[in-house]
Each structure stands twice: as structure tokens, then as C-alpha cells.
Automatic annotation (TrEMBL), chains A, B:
It comes from the Bacteria. Signal peptide: none annotated. Residues 145-219 form the HTH crp-type domain. This is Nitrogen fixation regulation protein FixK. CDD domains: CAP_ED.
Amino acid sequence: MTSPFVQKLRHGACLTEEDALLLDQLARPVHVAQAHHDILMEGDPPHTLTLILEGWACRYKQLDDGRRQIIALFLPGDLCEPYGILPHFMDHSLGAITAIRYARIRPDEMRALARANARIEEALWWDMLLQSAMQHEQTVSFGRRLAAERLAHFICELRLRLALVGLADETGFELPLIQSQLADAMGLTAVHINRTLMELRAAGLIELQRKQLTIRDPEALRNLAVFDPVYFHLDQRKDCNG
Amino acid sequence: MTSPFVQKLRHGACLTEEDALLLDQLARPVHVAQAHHDILMEGDPPHTLTLILEGWACRYKQLDDGRRQIIALFLPGDLCEPYGILPHFMDHSLGAITAIRYARIRPDEMRALARANARIEEALWWDMLLQSAMQHEQTVSFGRRLAAERLAHFICELRLRLALVGLADETGFELPLIQSQLADAMGLTAVHINRTLMELRAAGLIELQRKQLTIRDPEALRNLAVFDPVYFHLDQRKDCNG
DNA sequence: CGGCTAGTTGACCAGCTTCAAGTATTGTGG
DNA sequence: CCACAATACTTGAAGCTGGTCAACTAGCCG
């Protein structure tokens, strides 16, 4: 049973069993947080990196007048910061969406491990490349895609991310977000998210009930989103033999 | 005369004269590109990192139907990718806005230099932290800020970035973007950028003529943007003495 | 069962886009 | 250095996407 962290990183580089062990040893001890609780708040000194082991979390910022923007979602296996540096003070908050288990990792240990192990270093850089590429897609979504396209793209991306850690298949995945959280994540309002979900349902693209998202027509959904997974850079890994 | 790259990095770590020399030696030979020309196009294999030495460039994506989104602007001293890895194929394009001078750097050389020199490594990680933080602010802008707030924030951020490399002072800076480029950078249309600029001018916040942007009322502009530069992490550097 | 939270829907409104026309500015060849 | 073309900017009118407000319905949990 490999951890989601290792499972994800194996899409970016060839990791041996020993590499996997080294990574998992870093990810201890395990902490927990309840749903809706903050792991780190804006202004806090972080002290460590945060690695999500189980459950969903998010990076968000809150404006003075209450407007809230979820900047990124973090899924099992996700490292919430670039691994090599910690800010002295957080410029955003890190919140648990569901109940989560997470590990706190010191960046100097992470750096030491990467320095000692080229495969692990490669995998971590690939992870940063992916993180960064998803950020870029988000800018495109927010800047140029209509609500339905944006939502469709979001679903396609989430499905692929979850598939990389064995939490989604072709037919769908568990989506623990309520509509107001979806709204904060997509730069829309809850009411409009509702209408847009209804639209996708009416078009026969998806179903969503009791937190279970089912993709009824994957091709039509991808077409609407114009979703092209090249930005996941899954071709980055050389063949893993020997 | 220190290069903008070194000048910027010195805000993130204490670099000696020797460090500066090492960095500048990496940034050779120098290439040029004309305004409006692409340095790299989506799908290209990049071979090297790109470091902007002079002029403005941008990362952008083009959708099938012609919609275009500028994802990031690159100013003198900016590295256009995370320094440790190259994708096999570009998932976006890199275009020159003005005529530019740039250097092509091999990531393995960059990594070797960072590995050999802790100060340089620290500076490069700080640069990534800043790059990433700006991306986050952009998500907040696109998701939750009105056009005038978004534009005001954009101007405040640009002014500070340019100030870090000596290309802006309190009163303003040269802004080589035409309004349709501004629009592509901010997720709006050229017409609305025009109206919003007019609005900021009418409110006495800025002037903009012949590519020269003058900030008439810095405090009012910051207030409108709710611009807080903590996300630049300028406190990250320890005191540079001895 | 009752109270709370989440989801749904309608009516109306605001911000931004689109389309179109006109004005200013810039660049270029004679 | 001017004339003229091309590009950039400005403005108005109308329309669309998404926001706001408000009410109602459906789950969920003690």
C-alpha cells in the first residue's frame, strides 16, 4: 500500500521501493485537523511544510469585506508549498475542507533528501512543474472561460489529479465540496454554481448527488472544457525498467 | 552596474560580489528577440530556461477560438520557469512584448550552482516563492476583484516589481503594454480596460500617456487595490553584514 | 419532529462584453 | 519632413453573463 505522495510522484519520476520508504519516513509524525479548521492562517509563521495524507484542504485568501477566494485545492499526496523554502509569515491561509490527516516536513530535510537522491529530486521538481501548470490553467479559466467551461475544466482536472492517486476512475469521484466552496474555488457565486451545475446535469454531462460526482459523458465534458492534459507533463518520466 | 537578475535576487538573500559574478556568468550568451515575436511556442521543446535581461515578455495561452490569456508578465531579471526542471514540451507560449535581450540557461547548470552555493540557492528559492505568491494574488484578482480594483492592484504590483530592479520609483514607471495587451493580461476586454483606465484617471489616481504611467495618488491607489506587499516576502533576507 | 444547513428557483440588477463608429497617435515611404 | 495608412484609443448603445436578494424546498442530525 503506497502512500498517495509516493503514488503521485511516481508519475513524474521512477522511484524505487527504497526511495518510497525514504519519502514516507519524512512524512511523520502524522497530524490531524477537523473539517473547516485552519491548519495555518495568514500571518502565521509556518515552521514546516504541509503534506496532505488524507482528505481535502485548500489554500485561500479572505478580503476585508468578506469576499473569499480559494486559490488551490490540496488532495491526498499534495505538498502545499514549494518544497525548498518557507516564508517567514504566511501570505494566505491553509484550511481543511474535510477532516484531514497531514504531515509536517522541514524544508531542510526535504532539500537534503532531494540532494542525496536524484530520482526523488526529479520527482519533486516535476511536482512543482505540475503545481505551477495548474495555476496557469486556473488563470486561463478565470480570465477567459465561461462558467460552464470553467466548471467542466475544473471537473476534468480534478478527476485526473485524483486518478493519479487512485481516488478516481473514468466514471467519477467523491467531491466533498458544497456549492459555496465550489463557488469560492471558481471565482463565482454559489447561486451561479448551482445554475451551472444544473446546466451540466441537464446536458447529460454529469451527475452529482450526496458528494458523489458521476461523469455521464466524459467526451462531451472534455470538449466543453477543451481539456488537454498535456500540462500534467505525464511524459516527463523516462521508462521505468531495471 | 549589477544585472537585474542579481539586483532582484539580492532582495531575497545576501549575495556577495562573487555570487553575483557566478550568476552573471551563467546568463550567457545573450540572445535577442523582436517585439511581438515568440521565444517559445506551445508544443516546442524548450531545451533551456529563459532569463529576461532587458525588455518585457509574457507567458500566454491561446484558446482555439482566439481568446487569449496572458498568464504572467516577465520583466528584466525574471526567470520564466522554475529553475530546476524543463518540461519536455511547452504547455504555453513565451512571447516578447517589447524587443528583449535574454539568456538561455541549462537547468542542470543552474542546479549545480545552487547546490554549490547556499546563498544563491536561497535566493532562487525566494524567487520561486515570490513567483508563486504573485500567481496566487492573480487568482484572487481574477476571481474576486472588480475591474478597477484589479487594475489598481496590477499597477501596484508592477511598480514594486520594477522598483526591485531599479526601473520604477514612487512616481511611476514605463508601461510598454497597449490596452489590448493589458486586457489579455487582466482577463478583461480592451474596451473595458479603456473605460477602467479612464475611471482611474478621472479619480486622479494615475496618468498614462505615451507609455509612461504616473501614479498621481499612491495611497488612494493602494487603498482601492487593498495592496499589501507582504506577499513579496521582502523580510525573508537576513541582515547582510560582514 | 424540529431546526439547521445546503440546494433550488425566480426576479431583477450590475459589470462587463460586443458592436460600431469616430478620433488620436504612430509609423512609413516618398 | 510631410502625407497617409495603419494601429491604438475613445465613446456610445445594446446585450449577455453572472451577481444579488429573497423565498422556498430538500436533506441531515439530534
